[in-house]
Amino acid sequence: MRFDLTDLRLFRHVADSGSITHGAERSHLALASASARIRGMEELLAVPLLRRGRRGVRLTDAGRNLLDHARIVLQQVDTMRGDLSAYSRGLKGSVRVLANTAALSVHLPRLLAEFLAANPTIDLDLEDRESPAIVAALATGDADIGIASQAALVAGLESHRFRPDRLVLIAPAGHELARRRRTRFAELLALDFVGLPRGTALDGHLAMQAARIGRLLKLRVRASNPDAVCAMVAAGVGVAIVPETTARRQRRGLPLAIVGIAEPWANRELMLCIRDSRRLSRPAKRLFDALRLAGKSSTASSPA
After folding, report:
1. In terms of C-beta density within 10 A (0-12 exposed, 13-18 middle, 19 or more buried), how is residue 218 classed?
2. CATH 1.10.10.10 region(s) of the chain?
3. DSSP assignment, residue 160?
């Protein structure tokens, strides 16, 4: 059975007008061609689709069934054409964004929610990666936009300041460390830690820092996200290292102490990174501009 879209549109017009002549006119076909197409459809199906009379045509039961299917197929084709047209005009697309744990859990949720609400035709593919992996993916074209630590940047990428992102130690309010303002990372490695799931950027970052001094983190439990980590620490399970923004927000409702970490790697600056703004797709460029504006606003409002 081989019907093309012209056949289905013709049949719909004939059914709607009750006339092969009028259906041919609406389909921009000659009457002879339209009649031949209708006969060809009936021969292929081996069943009459129309009852022909002096005042026009009426649908048979088979014709009504075919009309139902034709309307569905033509509606789906029109929907497909509209969707693909949006892609061709650069109005619809998916943007691949890589960011570290702090950016994904703290800085991006509200910004991305606002962006998606304002841009309903754009989809986002988000992934948690460590900063060096983000930079590598951008350099090879495997991601459109990245948010990574400034220390991981390499030559050849375009980057813009996005957010300060200091890491701090959190401990239960009554912990012996609560009286300190700063501590060395090496002094903490004898303590029980609450960590994030394996594979998250912050988990990998801390494991790497411990390995550099020949040690391992003593992880008692892994929690699903930074907020859950804070709750476990407040309950006395152990200590943790989290972004300062998360720690200060959670301390409003939890008995937590915040202690600075006296290591250069704890004082991070998050950067908005791309390979080349001139080569971004329109959806990616729209998101990049929104994030860059948010970064400028954050920098302007930060205390000197």
Report:
1. middle
2. 5-88
3. E
From CA 190, how far away is CA 90, in angstroms rounded? 54
Helix H segments across the chain? 5-17, 20-26, 31-45, 61-88, 101-102, 108-118, 131-139, 201-212, 226-234, 244-251, 282-301
Structural contact between residues 153 and 272, judged by C-beta atoms closer than 8 angstroms: no
What CATH number belongs to 5-88?
1.10.10.10
Question: What CA–CA distance (Å, rounded) separates 150 from 42?
Answer: 70
Q: CA quadruple 20, 22, 27, 29: dihedral positive or negative?
A: positive
Which of 273, 222, 225 has its CA nearest to residue 250? 225
Q: In the chain, pLDDT over 90 holds for what percent of residues?
A: 65
* Contacts within 8 Å (CB) and 24+ apart, 197-204: 197/222, 197/224, 198/222, 199/128, 200/101, 200/128, 201/99, 201/100, 201/101, 201/102, 201/128, 201/129, 201/130, 201/131, 202/100, 202/101, 202/102, 202/226, 202/241, 202/242, 203/101, 204/130
What are 210-220's pLDDT values in tens digits?
999 999 999 99
Residue type, 185: F
pTM value is: 0.59
Token reading at 285: 């460029």
How many Å apart are CA 171 and CA 140, to the nearest integer? 40
What is the location of CATH 3.40.190.290 in the chain?
96-269
Q: What is the pLDDT of residues 28-52, one digit of tens each?
A: 999 999 999 999 999 999 999 999 9
Q: Does domain 96-269 have CATH number 3.90.79.10?
A: no
3-state SS of 269-295?
A: EEEEEECCHHHCCHHHHHHHHHHHHHH
